Amino acid sequence: TTANRSQAEMNEIRRQWVLAFRENGITTMEQVAAGMRVARRQERPFLPSPGQFVAWCREGSGALGVSVDDIMGEYWRWRKLVFRYPTSEQFPWRDKNPLYYHVCLELRRRGMEGQLSEKELIRAAGDILHEWEKRVLAGKPIPPVRRALAAPSRDRGPTPAEMLMAKYKQRKDAGLI
């Protein structure tokens, strides 16, 4: 609790919080308000750490007007429905916003590589969204959805694995194995 702390301790706590805000790009009252909305939904009666509160500030709609909940909703919708479309580029992304395309593809890549749980996916979505917010705040645009390169149209011949299997079968048929 803050009731039993000295003024010097309170000043140090304030300094740590301001430093955490500055280091993590929390510069507007809207971002702090977003963090407060998440804090009020928590069931724990304790003060969060500065890092936890910064994460909550990022969860609320940030510089791009998109929250982590928006990203996760679109991610799961895409994962359920993408099979209906020839490519992810042709999927009808929410609000025709290319940000969803880029974030969802990166989220799928990280999720598959790291075998992430749903909780870890949500954390990764927040990290990816934060990276995109920093990019946009630095003046870089969100690239449009571009068509992926088509698969080669002509047969390239057997793969190395197919060649080894053919060699194995040939040796087996000859009785050498």
TrEMBL record:
Q: Which InterPro entries match?
A: P-like
Q: Which Pfam families match?
A: Phage_lambda_P
What is an annotated GO biological process for this record, any one? DNA replication initiation
Entry protein name? Phage replication protein
